[in-house]
Design goal:
The complex is a heterodimer of chains A (347) and B (370).
Chain A: E1 21-30, E2 33-43, E3 48-52, H1 59-66, E4 74-79, E5 82-83, H2 88-94, E6 95-98, H3 110-120, H4 125-138, H5 154-165, E7 172-176, H6 184-201, E8 204-209, H7 212-218, E9 221-226, E10 229-234, H8 236-241, E11 247-254, H9 260-265, E12 270-277, E13 280-285, H10 289-300, E14 304-311, H11 315-323
Parallel strand pairs in A: 3-8, 3-9, 6-7, 7-8
Antiparallel strand pairs in A: 1-2, 1-4, 4-5, 9-10, 11-13, 11-14, 12-13
Helix pairs in contact in A: 3-4, 3-5, 5-6
Chain B: H1 2-16, H2 19-41, E1 47-53, H3 58-72, E2 77-82, H4 85-93, E3 99-103, H5 107-112, E4 120-123, H6 128-146, H7 171-202, H8 204-209, H9 215-245, H10 253-278, H11 285-299, H12 313-321, H13 323-335, H14 341-365
Classes of the chains: A alpha/beta (347), B mainly alpha (370).
Chain lengths: 347, 370
């Protein structure tokens, strides 16, 4: 496994500072079934840490153990220095949690939802109104404060839940698949909002997701989990670099000479060149140096490049490399009843 | 305890934003009160009684005059005259008439000669209520016919004089205590059962569990909210039901205080009982599937619609363990008899003990984790 030797990744944590989250040989068993198997990692203060894996990989079980929702079968988890098994309430006071399901009260207004949770977290009355007003502004829901939650779109409800998780100003924020079920525009809006909030509040975030682009965009470090085991852990860049994958270069040239394919083949790190007609070539290379060399070669030969597209290694390649399969939505055993949408409730 | 009140606030706000749920919990018991109260409370009127006069004498005429008098006054039955006893009996069988009285030949002669005069009543005993009403009414008429025209100066027979402690209680009034109890139970079924499990399934409780709220605060919050909803249902049905059925005791200060106390204790007992039933349930279908059974098992043996003394022994045993019985008994005592605390203290004690036992069992079963 890569990355375990450098648990704090590239964050702005002070040297020697204790980790915000430390998980030591944690495991969870349901009878004979092991949902999480001897997982260890730590998350530095101010870091955004991603747990990446397919449905049923054990991500939610991991996050539920860390947030005191389920008991730990073996190992230990420390949140802000508190052992979650021994001091669960102290741990709860330090964290904000956004569960996978949207759990805001649909019949309550936006403001009421936040107010109830502020009271549950024991936020003093004089701070409550100020904190709620600030959060509503942060998640751009101020003008919806008196609207019933069931009238909000899915993206707005997710933003409300983010605000709800931060109503007591926690230092550590857990988000379990925060953008699942959202449309692309809402997903980008949530990402931007999380990035902004993280910077403003100097939050430590732990995000589970099965979206590669989400993990790539948000996370300082990523742990890939499969079948309850941690199979890789490092920064997105290093994870990609660790995979022996090929770049795909697709280029179209105007008036290419007859020996152009041979010349392309001679470029550095090129593994294969395939002509696809109409001046279009598909080049597989083992490194980024090929692109620079290709441009220089075309310029010196006076050949016009009509189009150029480079597809480098993605986290999908990383995932396939470490788990041996494509990221998929596995059919998992549903343990909970899924409520049908109520009249007036937006899906 | 502030966290507990946050749970209560959430539950009540949610309840108040769901008028459909409030209506369901109030309307069903009220409909039951009105429909059952009117359907079961009345006396038989205008039953069709066939009369076959095979005698034609003066004594038979006396009977027919008595029938005409009943038809003109209390209207229990209307006589329909037949010539043929076989046709009258056939009409009883096929439901055209509700009964047939046959005055046999020589009836008048036998009356004069005191030679065991008899008249026959043919009834359709597949309808027990109708047949027993006709039997009772005709027994009264027969007794009147047997009464001598001149009474002896000293009464020789033992007479029973009934002294009724309370004014006549219509069936709708009799049903009101059961309707109040049922309304509170329906409220608990919806609020403490269905909505509680729905919230669990939707993940709302997951949101609570990651906050620093303690197990005790959570249990107290959920139960207090459920009890408040049941109290609101109980108060509304008591007032509205009293106005509909004409029970005035509700509006006397002392009775109102005792009613409030009974509603409070009943709501605690019902809510903690429901909390125990649902404490480990996860599937929202379970409360929906079991509530019909619970309703039947708890409501009908309670004496709300029929006296417990008329039950077989095994059903009386169910009634003894049924919290409904004690709530219904207390409401009856307060509403129908205008009784004081001495008549209901044992009911209140039983319901309080039930609440304490239920919450004591449910608390260790309640999981602070998923």
């Amino acid at each position: 496994m890569i990355g375990n030797a450098k648990p704090n990744g590239g964050t702005n944590a002070a040297p020697g500072a204790p980790p915000a989250i430390a998980v030591e040989h944690i495991s969870k068993k349901y009878g004979d079934f092991t949902a999480v198997d001897d997982v260890s990692f730590s998350v530095a203060e101010g870091e955004i840490f991603g747990l990446l894996g397919p449905n049923g990989a054990g991500k939610s079980t991991l996050i539920r153990m860390m947030t005191t929702l389920i008991e730990i079968t073996g190992g230990k988890a420390f949140i802000a220095g508190h052992d979650v098994s021994k001091e669960p309430n102290a741990a709860r006071g330090s964290i904000g949690v956004i569960p996978q399901a949207m759990t805001s009260d649909l019949d309550l207004t936006v403001e009421e939802n936040l107010s109830i949770y502020a009271k549950l977290y024991g936020v003093p009355r004089e701070q409550r109104e100020r904190a709620i007003a600030k959060l509503l502004a942060d998640v751009e829901l101020t003008k919806w404060r008196t609207a019933q939650t069931k009238t909000l779109s899915g993206g707005m409800r997710r933003r409300l839940e983010v605000a709800r998780g931060l109503v007591h100003s926690p230092k550590i924020f857990f988000l379990d698949e925060p953008t699942t079920g959202l449309d692309p525009v809402s997903r980008v809006a949530v990402w931007e909002m999380l990035t902004k909030i993280k910077e403003e509040r100097r939050l430590t975030m732990l995000i589970t997701t099965h979206y590669m682009d989400e993990a790539d965009r948000l996370c300082d470090r990523i742990a890939i989990v499969d079948h309850g085991k941690l199979v890789a852990l490092d920064t997105p860049l290093k994870l990609k670099a660790s995979v022996p994958a090929e770049n795909v270069i697709e280029a179209q040239f105007a008036h290419a000479p007859p020996d152009w394919e041979r010349m392309l083949q001679a470029l550095p790190k090129v593994n294969s060149v395939q002509s696809e007609g109409a001046g279009m070539y598909r080049i597989l290379s083992a490194g980024t140096a090929t692109v620079t060399a290709l441009v220089e070669c075309a310029l010196s030969a006076g050949i016009e490049i009509k189009s150029l597209a480079v597809q480098s290694t993605t986290l999908d390649d990383v995932f396939v490399h470490y788990t041996g399969r494509q990221l998929r939505d596995e059919q998992v055993k549903a343990y909970a009843f899924v409520m049908p949408a109520r009249p007036g409730e937006r899906a | 305890m502030n966290r507990m009140w946050a749970i209560v606030e959430r539950e009540l706000r949610k309840f108040l934003r769901s008028p459909a749920l409030m209506l369901v919990s109030l309307v069903f018991p009220l409909i039951q009160l009105i429909v059952l109260g009117n359907a079961f409370g009345g006396k038989i009127r205008d039953a069709r009684l066939g009369v076959v006069d095979q005698d034609g004498g003066a004594q038979a005429l006396k009977i027919k005059e008595a029938f005409n008098s009943v038809a003109a006054n209390v209207r229990t039955f209307v006589p329909v005259y037949y010539d043929d006893d076989k046709r009258a009996t056939a009409d009883v069988k096929n439901g055209k008439i509700d009964g047939a009285l046959i005055i046999p030949p020589q009836y008048s002669r036998r009356v004069y000669e005191k030679e065991q005069p008899r008249i026959a009543l043919v009834v359709d005993n597949s309808d027990n209520f109708m047949s027993s009403t006709l039997e009772q009414k005709l027994a009264e008429l027969t007794e009147a016919l047997n009464t001598p025209d001149v009474q002896p100066r000293v009464v020789q027979n033992v007479a029973l004089q009934v002294v009724e402690l309370y004014p006549y209680i219509e069936y709708m009034k009799y049903l009101l205590p059961g309707s109040i109890t049922l309304a509170m139970f329906v409220s608990v079924m919806i609020g403490g059962g269905m909505l509680y499990i729905d919230d669990k399934a939707r993940g709302v409780h997951e949101g609570y569990l990651v906050t620093p709220i303690t197990k005790l605060e959570l249990i107290l919050g959920l139960n207090t909210a459920g009890a408040i909803k049941a109290i609101a249902s109980g108060v509304v049905i008591t007032v509205v039901g009293s106005l509909i059925s004409g029970v005035t005791a509700t509006f006397h200060v002392q009775q109102a205080i005792l009613l409030g106390l009974t509603i409070l204790v009943t709501s605690l007992a019902f809510n903690t009982m429901m909390f125990l039933f649902m404490v480990r349930v996860e599937d929202p279908l379970v409360p929906r599937a079991t509530f019909g059974v619970l309703n039947t098992l708890l409501f009908f043996p309670s004496g709300a619609i029929y006296p417990i003394n008329a039950f077989p022994k095994w059903l009386q045993a169910v009634a003894i363990a049924d919290p409904f019985s004690y709530a219904v008994h207390a409401f009856k005592a307060l509403l129908l008899k205008e009784a004081g605390i001495t008549a209901i203290w044992h009911d209140l004690l039983f319901l309080t003990v039930i609440a304490a036992i239920m919450i004591s069992i449910a608390t260790p079963l309640f999981k602070r984790t998923l």
